[in-house]
Design a protein that fits this description.
Layout (H helix, E strand, L loop, with lengths): L1 E7 L1 H5 L3 H10 L3 E5 L6 H7 L9 H7 L6 E7 L2 H9 L12 H5 L8 E3 L3 H11 L7
Antiparallel strand pairs: 1-3, 1-4, 2-3
């Protein structure tokens, strides 16, 4: 079994999509081992996305991620990282495959409803950024 990290982003939470996205992930065989709702400060968003600090979209991304509550979660299943990326779809919903979460719900490349770790090292950092050992089942 492998664990990965995901965030239901502020646009999806605001549009009432949290339940639909969680249900879809469970239908795809993911087991939720940690989940909560938080509202990031700008400093917290900047810390989480520090790897992108030099990218031109950093300021708009961190501002977006502080617009409202998010739902970070740790998911588990075989091949969790690659499978979550398949289920989410391409970052740009215009390029996402039909039936993926982003194709169904995302508005744009930035307001794309869900985040998922892209590698085991990234997942480890992201999980520990939001959850301590007492919060993981």
């Amino acid at each position: 079994m492998e664990r990965t990290f995901s965030i239901i982003k502020p646009d999806a939470v605001a549009n009432g999509l949290t339940g639909k996205i969680v249900a879809r992930l469970q239908e795809e065989g993911f087991r939720i081992v940690a989940l909560k709702m938080v509202h990031l400060t700008l400093a917290e968003a900047e810390g989480f996305y520090a790897v992108h600090r030099e990218r031109p979209f950093f300021a708009s991304l961190t501002k977006f991620m502080t617009e409202g509550p998010i739902v970070p979660m740790i998911l588990e299943r075989e091949d969790a990282i690659s499978r979550l990326r398949d289920v989410m779809g391409a970052t740009n919903p215009a390029n996402a495959t039909v039936g993926t979460i982003r194709k169904m719900y995302a508005e744009s490349i930035e307001r794309n409803v869900i985040h998922g770790s892209d590698a085991p090292e990234t997942a480890k950092f992201e999980m520990s950024y939001f959850f301590n050992a007492f919060e993981v089942m």
